[in-house]
């Protein structure tokens, strides 16, 4: 049970002052009963706002295909990823945020959630969940890149310890697939810069065993946290 005004506010519906007005207008019900006071304690799964059940009252997680040129931050100028989602989601508490941001020019698979435990599990270095990318390079590959990237000895500029070994596969004259097990700042771009090349396009295609698949750019799918854990771990497809 939770106070109605706190519930609707944290789900991004509006301010507590607005919620008081909506209650007076009879817009909020619990089952068939009009709620009389915004301070009442209610069962979130039974509350309706203007005839519709509440929007993910017990948590929200999606998998999203981030297009290139979009921004994961809430505060930078430019086209934000949040423009692809319902406006209400931007105001949820806890914050509905991407797990492991992709930079503006990188596209591909992104998990967005308000689940702090999921966020911690995905980003903790202890779990070493692989993130797979397809990399398009400015110059042709020499041929020794897979050995260098998987050696565990590659140093990035400004870093004091080498990168963990990456799994790599050459896909074309200037195209590679790479899986990394860390989340350093602009890591993949900096790894290829350390080898004297430049990344011109970068797409994340998998997180663990979770594949981007045919999800179109700018589109998303809602997913239960339990199912997501299993798909990333390879326990289900």
Overview of the structural elements:
By secondary structure, this protein is of the alpha+beta class. The chain has three domains: 2-53, Roll (Structural Genomics Hypothetical 15.5 Kd Protein In mrcA-pckA Intergenic Region, Chain A), CATH 3.10.290; 61-124 and 209-233, Pseudouridine synthase I, catalytic domain, N-terminal subdomain (Alpha-Beta Plaits); 131-207, Alpha-Beta Plaits. Helices cover 19% and strands 27% of the residues. The protein has six helices and 15 strands. Strands 7, 8, 9, 10, 11, 12, 13, 14 and 15 form a nine-stranded mixed beta sheet that branches. A four-stranded antiparallel beta sheet has the order 3-2-5-6, with no helix packed on it. Strands 1-4 form a two-stranded antiparallel sheet. A hairpin with a 2-residue loop joins β13 and β14 (210-211).
The backbone outline, from C-alpha atoms, is: elongated
Which residues form runs of ≥5 with pLDDT under 50?
none
The whole-angstrom Rg is: 22 Å
Count of individual helical segments: 6
CATH class of the largest domain: Alpha Beta
- Overall tally of domains: 3
In angstroms, what separates the terminal alpha carbons?
35 Å
As a percent range, the share of helical residues equals 10-25%
CATH H-tier superfamily of the largest domain: Pseudouridine synthase I, catalytic domain, N-terminal subdomain
Strand proportion, as a percent range, falls in 25-35%
Number of strand elements? 15
State the major sheet: 9 strands, mixed
Gross CATH architecture of the largest domain: 2-Layer Sandwich
The structural class is alpha+beta
């Amino acid at each position: 049970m939770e106070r109605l005004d706190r519930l609707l506010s944290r789900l991004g519906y509006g301010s507590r002052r607005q919620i008081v007005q909506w209650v007076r207008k009879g817009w909020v019900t619990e089952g068939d009963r009009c709620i009389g006071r915004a301070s009442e304690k209610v069962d979130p799964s039974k509350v309706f706002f203007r005839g519709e059940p509440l929007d993910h009252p017990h948590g929200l997680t999606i998998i999203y295909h981030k297009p290139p040129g979009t921004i994961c931050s809430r505060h930078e100028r430019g086209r934000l990823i949040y423009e692809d989602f319902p406006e209400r989601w931007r105001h949820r508490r806890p914050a509905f945020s991407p797990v492991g941001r992709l930079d503006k020019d990188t596209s591909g698979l992104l998990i967005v959630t308000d689940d702090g435990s999921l966020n911690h599990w995905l980003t903790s270095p202890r779990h070493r969940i692989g993130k797979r990318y397809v990399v398009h390079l400015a110059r042709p590959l020499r041929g020794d890149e897979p050995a260098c990237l998987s050696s565990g000895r590659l140093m990035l500029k400004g870093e004091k310890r080498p990168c963990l070994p990456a799994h790599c596969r050459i896909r074309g004259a200037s195209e590679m697939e790479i899986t990394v097990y860390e989340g350093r700042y602009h890591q993949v771009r900096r790894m290829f810069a350390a080898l004297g090349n430049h990344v011109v396009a970068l797409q994340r295609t998998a997180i663990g065993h979770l594949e981007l698949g045919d999800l179109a750019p700018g589109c998303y799918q809602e997913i239960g946290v339990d199912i997501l854990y299993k798909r990333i771990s390879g326990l289900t497809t």
